[in-house]
From TrEMBL:
One Gene Ontology cellular component annotation held by this UniProt entry: membrane
Amino acid composition bias (Low complexity), ranges on this chain: 31-49
Protein name: Oligosaccharide deacetylase
Signal peptide residues on this chain, from the entry's feature table: 1-22
PROSITE patterns: NODB (PS51677), TAT (PS51318)
Occurrences of domain NodB homology (ranges): 91-271
GO molecular function, one term: hydrolase activity, acting on carbon-nitrogen (but not peptide) bonds
Transmembrane spans: none
Top-rank taxon: Bacteria
Assigned keywords, A-Z: Hydrolase, Metal-binding, Signal
GO biological process: carbohydrate metabolic process
Length: 278
């Protein structure tokens, strides 16, 4: 019964999302149609969003694995540049948190997002996700979108194609197991993209999403500076880059508590992007 309620809540959250498409420099993508969520989330009869405590049972019955046609996202085009912003109605922005999940900071960020009923994107690293699967299950329960940020956060431009594939594929696998769906979005560590990353990302059903505003929070410039960077960069369609792992992220946690209510007061709708190819 609880699982049904969780799924219902998740569907309600997704259905309530603004129609937001990802818009790249090429301007290929446009606003999604109507109010139907374009993300193939929580299929009827699909697995429960929360299953972190039963990973082995899930492995035996891969309802959304490669064996199920509805689970394989339609392959997006191979891009030459990552998407940098989203297009949508009104003052829409997307918050993204990279490198986690980290049990020291991610729960606090999730608490703040929940307090304001805001959904965000988490570009997780496979090795972190594997160690903290319960946090991916929570992200699923609370309607957040999880993207692929490679397994070990390497500089992809220095890796072989075979190694890049492993970094991406193994991360998508652990996300599927812990979150419930394979990721539809990919972000290269350090924003260092190359042709292999674009090709393999598309092959694995993912769109490359970069960012518009970099808070540089990983340099620990102080919560106030992070807040200023978000507020100075705020504009319709902006994708904000923050981090919930990779070092001491307490400034990022504090900053979110300050800028999130202010953005909402300014009329911004903080949401997650929807894919056009599903
Ligand atoms: Zn990163």
């Amino acid at each position: 019964m609880k699982k049904v309620q969780l799924l219902t809540r998740r569907r309600a959250l997704l259905a309530g999302a603004a129609a937001v498409g990802a818009a790249g420099t090429a301007g290929v993508l446009t606003t999604g149609p109507g109010d139907e969520p374009a993300l193939p989330a929580a299929p009827v009869g699909g697995p429960p969003a929360r299953r972190a405590h039963r990973p082995s049972a899930y492995r035996l019955k891969p309802l959304t694995g490669y064996g199920s046609p509805r689970a394989v996202p339609v392959r997006p085009p191979v891009r030459r540049e990552p998407l940098l912003r989203v297009s949508g109605r009104g003052r829409t922005m997307v918050l993204t948190f990279d490198d986690g999940p980290d049990p020291r900071y991610t729960p606090d960020i999730l608490d703040t997002l929940a307090e304001y009923e805001v959904r965000a994107m988490f570009f997780v690293c496979g090795e972190m996700a594997d160690a903290h699967r319960e946090l991916l299950a929570r992200m699923a329960d609370e309607g957040h979108v999880v993207g692929n940020h490679t397994w070990s956060h390497p500089l992809l431009t220095r890796l072989t194609r075979r190694r890049i594939r492993w970094e991406m594929e193994s991360t998508s696998d652990v996300i599927e197991e812990a979150y419930g769906e394979r990721p539809l979005w990919f972000r290269a560590p350090y924003g260092a993209w190359n042709r292999a990353a674009f090709q393999l990302g598309a092959e694995l059903g993912m769109e490359p999403l970069a960012w518009t505003v970099d808070t540089l929070d990983w340099t620990t410039p102080g919560a106030r500076t992070i807040v200023d960077r978000v507020e100075d960069g705020a504009a319709p369609g902006v994708v904000v880059l923050c981090h919930d792992a990779g070092g001491d992220r307490s400034q990022s946690v504090t900053a979110l508590r300050r800028y999130l209510p202010r953005l909402l007061d300014s009329g911004y709708h903080l949401t997650v992007p929807r894919r056009q190819y599903t």
